[in-house]
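Budget justification note: compute hours in this period were largely spent on complex prediction jobs such as the one shown. Inputs:
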Amino acid sequence: MKILVCISHVPDTTSKINFTDGDTKFDTNGVQYVINPNDEFGLTRAMWFKEKQGASVDVVNVGGPETEPTLRKALAIGADSAIRVNTEAKDGFAVAKELAKVVTDGSYDLVIAGRESIDYNGGMVPGMLSGLTGANFVANCIGLEVDGTNAKAVREIDGGKETVNTSLPLVIGGQKGLVEESDLRIPNMRGIMMARKKPLNVVEPAGANNETSANSFEKPAPKGAVKLVDADNIDELINLLHNEAKVI
Amino acid sequence: MSVLVYTESENGKLKKAALECVSYAKAIADEMGTSVTAVAINANDTDALGNYGASKVLNVNNDALNTFNAKQYASVIEQAAKQEGATVAIVSSSADSKYLAPLLAVGLEAGYVSNVVEKPSNLSPFTVKRTAFTNKAFANTEINTDVKLVGLSNNSFGLVESGGSASVEDFSPSIADSGVSVESVDKAVGKVTIADAEVVVSGGRGLKGPENWGLVENLAEVLGAATACSKPVSDLGWRSHSEHVGQTGKPVATNLYIAIGISGAIQHLAGISASKVKVVINTDPEAPFFKAADYGIVGDAFEVVPVLTEKLKAFKAQNA
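Corresponding output:
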């Protein structure tokens, strides 16, 4: 089984979110980049398929040279090789089109992407990738087993979960649950040394046009201070929620 | 040219988010000088859609579509959009709608923007405001394609009744191959889900153990609210992962979010910050949640919550 894990290069959760150039660009100053958490759960599950079922695992990112340390980290965790599509990731549709070419060229059986990236939160790349390549698709995937070309997946739904049967080729939008947080791996020194020698192939983009563009950003208006209500005066809280906030 | 809305239903009944999407579509259609067409799949109460601004309803009744399947549903909506010559299509932010939307975008060759929170600021170029960076910012996003697909955030636009009525037509699209078949569904029956709720009551590690969840459930029942939990609580197995809200869990965008015994880690706050009014109950006045909340009580949940529940019950009885 050939697995491709899509890796998004995103600001760490604790990063300060600011914008420059008249609020048209994300301010990368001082921002630490990490593997998108939803992708990391998928990558860890892919390692399980590699170790238990002999799968090969490649990782891919659409982005400039600055994303290579993130791909190297994925190699240090255990992926066999990495691909970087050398173009700026402008919108989900364009990224999906670039990835679709990588998937087709590499004849991958299983593509594991994250449910959404924690920066733009579009949540569209895995679904579009399945639509473009004709592969089956399971979103919000919290469990996956593969037996031959048959796959059993668990999808989180509103208020519960459902178990589905499908087959390869398959794309999933993965999230926590594929593996637990305690299963995530921190690269060790041996992994880091080996990652330096593993192939990281830079491929030129297919040249997909972006169909949407984020032209400007704004931050939510600063919030007023919390109104504290005395624990002995619950009536006051009910009064505030009813008459001031008008939510009950 | 028209605005097409997918009006989602469950067990034959339209969801509130469907009515919100129709209200939103009506506002766009008015500015474009066109009308709203809704497409509903196995819903029994489509007569209600006219009141929220739909002029026409395409009613699909087909037993092959009894179970949600993203590919088949996306194909139905795609066929409806093409028949109507729709230039704008609207879907909600439910798990199912977010599942099918990217497939629909590919089918319609439509630029897709999810998590949209306002009416378009401009029709040409078509520009909408969406949340990004896990609710820490908004992005004003332009869609450049001929057909535009908008995913509307739940509870962001509200319901607008326009008092109209819609013509209801049967619509019989071809049914695509499913590719994915459902083996079993594990879902609590008769409970409000986090996605549909207007109020969410959420518990954290401060509740000390799963045996104390009656506190959260009783308060939720009085408020008709969904129950949720923080990440440590789901990691400890006190509650299922489907109740976990936050960055790696479910996003919450309700009118009222009540956090009990949750300190307010940055990942948790990121997931719930789209909620309009936030109330925190915590023994620790230094808990970060107090900086993010609108109202707060510094106190022991085991004393405060039962009193709050009783008083709210009396309040609801009085104001019913």
